[in-house]
Amino acid sequence: MTTQTPLTVPSRDGRSAPARVAATLVLEDGRTFRGSSYGAVGETVGEAVFSTGMTGYQETLTDPSYHRQVIVMTAPHVGNTGVNTEDDESTRIWVAGYVVRDPAIRSSSWRATRELEDELVDQGVVGICDIDTRALTRHLRERGAMRVGIFSGDAADRPEADLLDAVRTSPQMAGAALAAEVTTAEPYAVPAVGDKRFTVAAVDLGIKAMTPALMAQRGIEVHVLPASATIDDVLAVGESGPDGVFFSNGPGDPASAEREVALLREVLDRDIPFFGICFGNQLLGRALGFGTYKLKYGHRGINQPVMDRTTGKVEVTAHNHGFAVDAPLDEDSDTAYGRVRVSHVCLNDDVVEGLECLDRPAYSVQYHPEAAAGPHDAAYLFDRFVELMSTRQTAHQTTEVNA
User: Fold this and answer.
1) Which residues pair with 39 in a beta bridge?
2) Residue pLDDT, tens place only, 204-252
3) Where are the alpha helices (DSSP H) in 177-326?
4) Nearest Cα to Cα of residue 191 among 221, 168, 228
5) Among 29-38, 225-234, 341-350, 363-372, which stretch is predicted with the lowest mean pLDDT?
6) φ and ψ at 402, to 5 degrees?
7) Distance in angstroms (rounded) separating the CA atoms of residues 365 and 95
8) Run of H or E residues at 92
9) Could you tell me the pTM of the whole model?
10) pLDDT for res 392
């Protein structure tokens, strides 16, 4: 295997940047890319997926939904804004590996507190740079998301057959149950900003920090529960139970989430207002009786066009999902919980991007209305949750008066 002379470049404060050594990226179909180390030196395996976001890499890296995935950045220049202490979506970087074409020599942002590569090194994230990420992305678009390995330093000196074997024997994403690996260990609460209007039980399947923050801005006190929460845990939130229940985004195959689907059906049985995002959308689909399937290469980025079929408005939205709900687009469906319709659809490929229950107080979207990072076109969906809980609260008050 070929090697190259380590490269050093000056950093902003005059110190030398980390030395680069030879690195190799190996896809499970045998295609290989040779480049230089980026971040930690060593080896890693995961599912290779690409993200089309031109910005927001810090939010991407710290999104728990990327657990066990190797992210290929289609934007050629990465790291120019460094990292800061405000934009993390969780307490750590979750990606299994990181692939960029041209890493920034130094950051240039008044918000930066350190260099991106320093953060990758400190958190042990193995990456690769100086490869043709456009060619890699086109390969994944044609062949589909697949397992991949990044090997640098001593790990890259092993025979290519050994590297390919390490990739092909790594776990696949299909069938993976990962929520328990990314969820909070203990429940915690995010207080409402200003006057408290509602209390919500949020089941953390890989929640992003911006989600409870946006709810709190709307007067919602959010109680974040572990993925192992039971219906009793949910009902214990608030003085007389929660005003609403939320299921977050998260990694893994929704077909493996039997316990979470059972919990959601308990919520639907009690007519508690429900809102789900991403993985939560897939679980609502399963709870309603629909199937799910793995997309060829998924939707990941901050520029995906989605139509809200209720209003006809087209929104530019942030996505991160490799699975989708299999529900009919052209007609309402009859389910055990009443009529259900597809409320949102992706204009690129007609993938289901939202579900709305017509006879129950429940809805969900496949994309990320909290948009961290990304556009804020879909932030109104949090207002819909408020309206749903307001309607139910008013109905209960009317019933108590009449009684």
Assistant:
1) 126
2) 999 999 999 999 999 999 999 999 999 999 999 999 999 999 999 999 9
3) 179-182, 210-216, 231-235, 258-269, 279-287
4) 221
5) 363-372
6) -65, -30
7) 23
8) none
9) 0.92
10) 84
Rounded Cα–Cα distance for residues 131 and 36 (Å): 8
Our answer to whether residue 28 is catalytic in this structure is: no
Annotation marks residue 346 as catalytic: no
pLDDT at 6 exceeding the cut of 90: no
* Closest C-alpha to 180, from 197, 203, 201, 163: 203
Convert the pLDDT of each residue in 355-378 to its tens digit.
999 999 999 999 999 877 777 788
What amino acid is encoded at 63 in this protein?
Answer: D
Q: Are 397 and 309 in contact (CB under 8 A)?
A: no
Identified catalytic residue from 129, 221, 278, 353:
278
Rounded mean pLDDT, 325-350: 97
Q: Give the Cα separation of 264 and 227 in Å (integer).
A: 12
Dump the DSSP string for 130-179.
Answer: SS-HHHHHHHHHHH-SEEEEEEEGGGGGS-HHHHHHHHHTSPPSTT---H
Instruction: Collapse the DSSP code of 292 into the 3-class scheme (helix H, G, I; strand E, B; otherwise coil) and give the result.
Output: strand
What is the three-class DSSP state of 108?
coil
Check: CB of residue 187 under 8 Å from CB of residue 225.
Answer: yes
Cα 108 to chain centroid, rounded: 27
* Residue 47 annotated among the catalytic residues of the structure: no
Q: Is residue 220 a contact partner of residue 198, using CB atoms and an 8 Å limit?
A: yes
Catalytic residue, candidates 260, 315, 353, 370: 370
With 80 as the cut, is the pLDDT of residue 342 above it?
yes
